[in-house]
């Protein structure tokens, strides 16, 4: 396995030091290193400021997740902070419990290594992925110490980067190696790996011509258990769908997706369903849509105008087992009208975050019997089994 490409900052990361943005910050680094072991140590209280400790104490009671922020922000006296003070306050924020997920490790090509400190999992504010949306991303599930469909997701990841005109900082095999090493360093056996390619930092201009170094980032997120695929409601989205050029590319421009998800939640639903420019069923906020017709065909919209879901494509392959045993009569991909979708025997959402989730109501229309359908449940079982014991083509063992 290839070593992670190093930068001059990589040695500092390997020793546990924060990377200093300038030589002036370097005297603060030993203080930062000494502070970390003291947090939560039995020998005495943490060696951070009393204000920071008080914020953590309040957060520990669960009384107010915003406590840390209020101790930091004073609109009448905004402080100018040193690098070590910023690091301290990032630790206070992390300890406040404001984050809802466990971030186990992060790789950044900016500092050329992996960190397991969530407070250090940051990217430059002038990265064009942040202020211009010029970046792409993808994800892969971690199941029982294996990465699921990493190769398939990587293929889509690199296609998206090509469409977004993002030069690669490393070749494919090096990116793959970095991702596997990041999961290995995290010791996470159940969760997900998210990774991004950006044109990189450089300035706040519109053009990326001033960005000399494209950037790769990756984060491992722990998720100990999978949600039970309970039936859900969806609504038709009023948010304009992305044009096909951007819909088939997995870019970080997910504001339409986020608003589509929020719109569903505001209407008491799990998510909203997009229709394409011709009025046919397209996709959900970040998942594909599938149906079971009255003739027991598994029906899915074509991928020419929507994101080609890796999980959806794998489900189509696994569904052949249900054709073989007679539970399905066939598998087809074509345009689906709203009327046909709402009158289907079953409807389901398919994506890496939910696997296969039955839909029991769309707008005011009950789908099928109004209960989780047998095909959706069977497909969920097949994809889960594939994640746990599928062939090497979809499972890569992580060398912890």
Automatic annotation (TrEMBL):
Keywords: Pyridoxal phosphate
Compositionally biased region (Low complexity): 1-29
Keyword Transcription listed: no
Region (Disordered) residue spans: 1-31
GO biological process: amino acid biosynthetic process; carboxylic acid biosynthetic process
Record flagged with keyword Chloroplast: no
Family as reported in the entry's similarity comment: Belongs to the class-IV pyridoxal-phosphate-dependent aminotransferase family.
Protein's name according to its UniProt entry: Uncharacterized protein
Native species: Panicum hallii var. hallii
Highest classification ranks of the organism: Eukaryota, Viridiplantae, Streptophyta, Embryophyta, Tracheophyta
């Amino acid at each position: 396995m290839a070593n992670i490409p190093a930068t001059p900052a990589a040695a500092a990361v390997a020793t546990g030091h924060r990377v200093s943005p300038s030589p002036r910050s370097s005297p603060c680094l030993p203080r930062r290193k000494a502070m970390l072991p003291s947090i939560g140590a039995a020998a005495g209280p943490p060696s951070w400021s009393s204000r920071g400790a008080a914020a953590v104490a309040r957060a520990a009671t669960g009384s107010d997740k915003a406590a840390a922020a209020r101790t930091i922000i004073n609109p009448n006296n905004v402080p100018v902070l040193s690098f070590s003070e910023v690091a301290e306050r990032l630790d206070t924020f992390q300890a406040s419990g404001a984050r809802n997920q466990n971030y186990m490790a992060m790789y950044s090509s900016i500092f050329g290594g992996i960190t397991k400190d969530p407070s250090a999992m940051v990217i430059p504010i002038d990265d064009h992925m942040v202020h211009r949306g010029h970046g792409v991303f993808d994800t892969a599930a971690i199941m029982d110490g294996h990465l699921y469909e990493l190769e398939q997701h990587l293929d889509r990841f690199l296609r998206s980067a090509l469409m977004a005109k993002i030069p690669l900082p490393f070749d494919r095999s090096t990116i793959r190696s970095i991702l596997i090493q990041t999961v290995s360093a995290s010791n996470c056996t159940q969760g997900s790996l998210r990774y991004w390619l950006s044109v990189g930092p450089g300035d706040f201009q519109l053009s990326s011509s001033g960005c000399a170094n494209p950037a790769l980032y990756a984060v491992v997120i722990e998720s100990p258990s999978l949600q039970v695929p309970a039936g859900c409601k969806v609504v038709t989205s009023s948010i304009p769908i992305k044009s096909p050029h951007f819909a088939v590319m997995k870019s970080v421009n997910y504001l339409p997706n986020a608003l589509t998800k929020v719109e569903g939640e505001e209407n008491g639903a799990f998510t909203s369903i997009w229709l394409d420019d011709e009025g046919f069923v397209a996709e959900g906020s970040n998942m594909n849509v599938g149906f079971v017709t009255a003739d027991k065909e598994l029906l899915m919209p074509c991928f020419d105008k929507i994101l080609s879901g890796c999980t959806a494509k794998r489900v189509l392959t696994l569904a052949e087992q249900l054709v073989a045993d007679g539970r399905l009569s066939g598998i087809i991909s074509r345009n689906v009208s709203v009327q046909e979708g709402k009158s289907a025997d079953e409807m389901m959402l398919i994506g890496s975050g939910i696997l296969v989730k039955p839909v029991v109501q769309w707008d005011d229309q009950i789908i099928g019997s109004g209960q989780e359908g047998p095909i959706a449940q069977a497909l969920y079982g097949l994809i889960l089994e594939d994640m746990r014991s599928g062939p090497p083509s979809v499972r890569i063992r992580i060398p912890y």
